[in-house]
Specification:
The protein is an alpha+beta fold and 92 residues long. The chain contains 2 helices and 5 strands; from the N terminus they run αβββββα. The N and C termini lie far apart (64 Å).
């Protein structure tokens, strides 16, 4: 019974690890990848550094974000934390 108990304990530990850690992280990574693929000119975004702005140019790995009139910042696509609904920046 001791060997079987250890096997069951180990299998339960792996199941809990999968359900609580690996699966949610995989889901978040998939959602972020879809967000990066869907970025386009005119989208309003917030970077992981907290900079909010409108995308003016998109390349393979970088985007150019206009943060104020005639002020643009080049950031990596992976630095985009979230996309905002259209018109959000007017309210800020």
């Amino acid at each position: 019974m001791g060997v079987y108990g250890n096997v069951i304990f180990f299998a339960g530990f792996i199941l809990i690890f999968y359900l609580l850690i690996w699966r949610p992280q995989s889901k978040r990574a998939k959602e972020h990848k879809a967000l990066m693929a869907g970025l386009g000119k005119g989208d309003e975004v917030v970077t992981s550094g907290g900079i909010a702005g409108r995308i003016t140019r998109v390349t393979d790995d970088f985007i150019v974000v206009e943060v104020a009139d005639n002020v643009e910042v080049k950031v990596q696509k992976v630095a985009v934390a979230t996309a905002l609904p259209k018109g959000t920046l007017k309210d800020v």
